[in-house]
Structure formats: structure tokens, C-alpha cells
């Protein structure tokens, strides 16, 4: 009489063990999937941050082919194309991101950035206009300033440059771009102030050093600014000032600065030598 009950208990135990086994296998499968997802994300981050740009493009292109609906793969491909300097290809890649249902306003800003890199200012402006005004980020205002500059809307550009500078802890690039904008408007004094601000935040930003030399030369001040510089940087800045001096009609000062640039450069300074030959040839003519 007890045998059926014993068999029933044994059967239920076997089923219970089978259920536990299935549960363990499911847990292991989920854990493996999680590790794979983390590894893929780490690989994607590594490719975008430190990988060879063209290798990153190839990697993300393969990921998109395998999983074309994954927006992270689409973003990775678009970003890697920009990083590789392949901006004409990056535009449609970012447009694919924008067309994805999970696209964000940051993606639209990146599309505008890519249009600017591709020298398509009208399309960049259209892309920024599609971003709601409540999306207040550093990248958005940095690009708004550049578009306003391109349209010669100076007051608007100044407003956006100032806003962008206040939204980042590293505003050196903004101040450098703002200063160059002032230079193009024929305001070297304000430009000098902005380049100086850029160097206060990043003393190694050479473009700001060179632009600062250009802004000083634009005011007839041919003394190099007191900033940290290598011997090669010093030679390039002297060359920049020499060209500015010659264009201002100060040919004698320009020739002196040019010779100093040639003497200062640690290697053969071909550009400066060619400029000197041209200057001497023009003088003899």
C-alpha cells in the first residue's frame, strides 16, 4: 500500500531536481549573455577611445551588419567614421542614427557637427534647428556659435560662445575659436584677450599660442607673447608674425622675424626659407 506513495514522492523529487537543473542552466545562460554584452560594450568603448580609426570603422561596420537595429552599433560606426576623417561617409551614418526610434537630441547635435566638418553649413543649421531649445548642452552651443559665425551674426555668435564656455570645465577650445572669430572681424585686441584666456586653461594649446602671436602682430606688436613654448613652436610663431608684418607693409620687420624663425627652428624650416627667397626675389625686382 505504501509503494504508490513512495513512487509519487520519488517522481516529484526527480521533477523538482529537473526543474532546479533547468533553472541553473537558465541562470548560467543569462550570466554568459551578460558577460558577452559587457565585453561587447568594453570593446566598443575601446575602439572609440583608443583603437585605430579605420579598424574601428571596420569593427562597427561588422557589428551593424550583424545587428543593424542596435543603435549603439549605428552610433559607433558614425563616430568612428568622423574620427577617421571620413566625414562624407559619416553624414549618412549619422542620418541612420537619427532615423532610429531610440535616437536622442545628442545624436542630432552630432549630425550637425558632422555637417560642419563636411563644410555643409546650411544643413548643419537645419539639424540644430531640429533640436529643441530645452536641450542646453556644451556641444549644442559650441556648434550654434560656429554656425552664427558662418552667418556673420556676431552678437549671436558671442552669446553662444560665452554660453558654451560656461558649460565646460575645459573651455580652451571655445576661447580659441571665439578669438579667431574676433580676428576675422578685424578686432585683434579682443582676440588677444580670448587667446590668452584659452592658454590660461590649457597652456599647451599651440593653436592658441600661434593665434595669440597673430593677434599681437595685427596690432603692430611684434614681440612674442610670454607663454611656455618649445623651440619649434617659437620658430613657427615668429614665422606667423613675420607673414603678418609683411602683409601690414612692415617688410623690414617681417624680414628680420623671418630670419629669426629660420635660425630658431631646430630643423630645416622649408616654409620660412621659401618665404625668405620670395621676399628677397621681390626686393631685387
UniProtKB/TrEMBL annotation:
Gene3D superfamilies, per the entry: Tetratricopeptide repeat domain (1.25.40.10)
UniProt-recorded name of the protein: Flp pilus assembly protein TadD
Stored SUPFAM superfamilies: TPR-like (SSF48452)
Native source species: Roseinatronobacter thiooxidans
Amino acid at each position: 500500500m505504501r509503494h504508490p506513495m513512495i513512487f509519487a514522492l520519488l517522481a516529484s523529487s526527480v521533477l523538482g531536481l529537473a526543474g532546479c537543473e533547468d533553472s541553473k542552466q537558465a541562470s548560467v545562460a543569462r550570466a554568459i549573455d551578460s558577460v558577452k554584452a559587457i565585453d561587447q560594450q568594453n570593446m566598443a568603448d575601446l575602439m572609440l577611445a583608443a583603437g585605430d580609426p579605420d579598424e574601428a570603422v571596420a569593427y562597427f561596420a561588422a557589428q551593424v551588419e550583424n545587428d543593424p537595429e542596435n543603435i549603439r552599433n549605428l552610433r559607433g560606426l558614425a563616430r568612428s567614421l568622423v574620427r577617421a576623417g571620413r566625414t562624407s561617409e559619416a553624414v549618412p551614418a549619422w542620418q541612420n542614427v537619427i532615423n532610429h526610434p531610440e535616437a536622442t537630441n545628442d545624436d542630432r547635435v552630432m549630425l550637425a557637427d558632422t555637417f560642419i566638418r563636411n563644410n555643409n553649413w546650411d544643413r548643419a543649421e537645419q539639424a540644430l534647428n531640429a533640436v529643441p531649445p530645452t536641450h542646453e548642452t556644451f556641444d549644442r552651443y559650441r556648434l550654434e556659435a560656429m554656425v552664427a559665425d558662418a552667418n556673420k551674426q556676431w552678437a549671436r555668435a558671442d552669446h553662444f560662445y560665452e554660453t558654451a564656455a560656461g558649460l565646460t570645465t575645459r573651455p580652451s577650445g571655445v576661447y580659441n575659436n571665439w578669438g579667431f572669430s574676433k580676428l576675422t572681424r578685424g578686432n585683434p585686441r579682443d582676440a588677444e584677450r580670448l587667446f590668452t584666456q584659452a592658454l590660461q586653461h590649457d597652456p599647451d594649446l599651440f593653436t592658441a599660442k600661434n593665434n595669440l602671436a597673430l593677434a599681437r602682430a595685427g596690432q603692430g606688436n611684434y614681440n612674442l607673447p610670454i607663454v611656455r613654448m618649445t623651440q619649434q613652436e617659437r620658430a613657427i610663431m615668429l614665422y606667423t608674425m613675420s607673414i603678418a608684418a609683411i602683409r601690414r607693409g612692415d617688410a623690414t620687420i617681417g624680414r628680420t622675424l623671418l630670419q629669426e624663425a629660420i635660425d630658431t627652428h631646430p630643423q630645416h624650416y622649408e616654409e620660412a626659407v621659401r618665404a625668405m627667397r620670395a621676399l628677397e626675389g621681390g626686393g631685387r625686382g
